[in-house]
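Hi P.,

Sorry for the delay on this. The queue was packed all week, but I finally got your sequence through. Input first:
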Amino acid sequence: MRLRHDHAILILVLALLVVGIGILYSASYELARAASGDGLRFVKRQLVNATVGLAALLLVSQIDYRRWRRAARLLLLFAALALCVVFLFDAVRGARNWVPFFGRTLQPVEFLRVALLLFLASEIVERGERLRSLRGLLPLFGVVAALVLLVLKQNDFGSAMALCLISFTLLFVGGARWRHLVAAAFLLLLGAMFFALERPHVQERMRGFLHPQEHARSAAYQSLQSELSIGSGGMLGRGLGQGISKFGYIPDPHTDFIFAVMGEELGFVGCIVVLLLFLMLIARAIRVARAQEDPFAQLIAVGVGVAIFWYVVINVMVATRLFPVTGLPLPFVSYGGSSLVSHLVALGVLRNVARQAEQTPRRARRWPARREHLLEGAL
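Then the structure:
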């Protein structure tokens, strides 16, 4: 029996959530018990986050995706304003990217990612062939640059990099010329370097990445411990709950470095299985895109898949010491409400697109000739 795209998306995300709760329980139990006396503190909160996120996914999946095209600019404006609110509050660990929200904390940049994705998809379709010219591309580049620089101002270099990668990939797929995007990326890189020179903690992370042995007890400590933890897991791992890296060796192992705990306890095979779940989810997003004739629907589906792809790639590269520490969570697995809910909301939009694809006659399910032409031009 052929599995519908929207059902497959829901099954895959539920599988990732189950894996995430299991790993989170193991990674956070001792830390939570030492801090509050309740070893299930983080698990309980993540279950609430998952419940809210799944409810949002199911709700958003009932909304016709075409409505987001009309609301895209307004959504981006609200997200940008929320991003500015963080400057009213104190920095947390060098980054000023959190705001209080009903006794919890909210990270606006996570929801900005979804709003920016919808905005770019709408604008790319609106501009059409004009996107291949600098005049058509510059306004979109200006919006992306302004938002990225605002995120950099908050000392959140990981989110800024993710926004750039997602935006540039979507623009490339949408038909922008690669040489224009390379020039734009170079300008953004110069801006990022300017901010980095004024941020001591960013320079420290770079030194730790480039010269780990010289900074093994300071800037490179977390990444080195992560590498050791993953390596100690071998092929099959020590077993769920049997790892030792969470006992003070890796600071906050339940957040950005939860992949290290996964590698130690589930081993290489377990990590490959989890990564295959991500790959299957991304592949479903691409299949949904190919099943649509509406370019806006295609770009939404591609954008959701691309966002998950870059977050997973960056998180895994940081955990395996192939990239400097950035602070990006592993989608659906790392502890954190903002990241989890925002990814689930994006998948809700994708589910609605998938439903529309299922209702499209089979003969119409092909990648439109116009988009193929744009893609060939970009290449």
